[in-house]
Amino acid sequence: MAALPYMQLYVADYLADTMHLTTEEHGAYLLLIFNYWQTGKPIPKGRLSRIARVPVDRWKDIESALSEFFEDDGEQWIHLRIERDIETVTTKPRGKSLPGGDSLTGYKGYVYFVTDPSSDLVKVGYSKNPWARLSELRRSHGVALSVVATIKTVEKSETPVHVALTEFHADGEWFHKTDAIKGLIEAISGGVVTTVDELRSYVGDYGSATTSTTNKDTDTDIKEHTQRVREQSAPPPDDDSERPKFAMTDAWEPDPRTFTAVLTRNGLAGQTFRADQLLEFRSYWISRPSDLKTQAQWEHKLAQQLKHQHVKNQSGGLGHEASGRSARSRTRNAHDILTDTSW
To answer: What is the pLDDT of residue 305?
Structure first.
């Protein structure tokens, strides 16, 4: 394919995801993604070292650090983020036709609701084509995900909906699947709620929508139940301006109530970790007292470090002695470690 006109480089995301790379690894990684963008296709494994301009014997030392950014199908390396961006640049909308011949005329895109029937979380995001976006989400969060509701929007953002659903927020774009959220999804799917304004109204007065089909006592019970659900599931506000930022300390710990969801979104659900990994994380950031982050941001940083170490371990990044030690000590899951008072 012809070279694309530009490449989107999300500087903040890049720096956050590559903080552990050496200068040499940064250069090799950038050359790989630049080539990927220019050719518009995955990179054959036999050409990786040549494209990265690294001698073959040296490539063996840095391959494991770079492999975490790609999917390996056995013959080539696939970069999911670049695949998505290429699809966005070269097609409208998002590379696949909309279901049922739907049209976005007069709208910017969709606010979508995606969930797994067995999960207690719902992802609320924005896309020009949620059904094309779904294939990417399934790679990182499981094939059981499906698009359960969509609303067309004139804003190129899901932020207004996130604001309306603040009290059900879990982390990032994920929300608790409470009765209120389930009712909202049903209302959208059934055509009762068709706009963002109607969504705000529905959420603001959840329960009253059933007044015409219920008696007064039942309607009151629904409202009281909804209030209890909101009180039980409402997390702290997701506005960093309202959440205190602080430097890392020896006493810091991730909150098990939110960190489990963070691990799931990073593809680490059910993985086991060593308690000393938290100690290493604290030690690294305590030495950087000028770095201030919220609790949620620290948890995200920890999850990213655990993911990097997990990928490195799988690719043989640990020596024989270290690997043996890890195998013997890795007997507890993430929840066990999070609730371990000996930290």
So the answer is: 83
Q: Is the pLDDT of residue 56 over 50?
A: yes
Q: Mean pLDDT for the chain?
A: 77
The helix-helix angle for 196-204 and 179-189 (nearest 10°) equals 140
Two structure tokens written together for 194: 């068709």
| CB-CB contact of 151 with 165 (8 Å) | no
Q: Is the peptide bond before 256 cis (omega within 30 degrees of 0)?
A: no
32 pLDDT above the threshold of 50? yes
Instruction: Name residue, tokens 């702290």.
Output: 236
Band of pLDDT at residue 63, cut at 50, 70 and 90: very high
Give residue 206's identity as a one-letter amino acid code: Y
pLDDT at position 278 over 70: yes
Whether 268 contacts 259, CB under 8 Å:
no
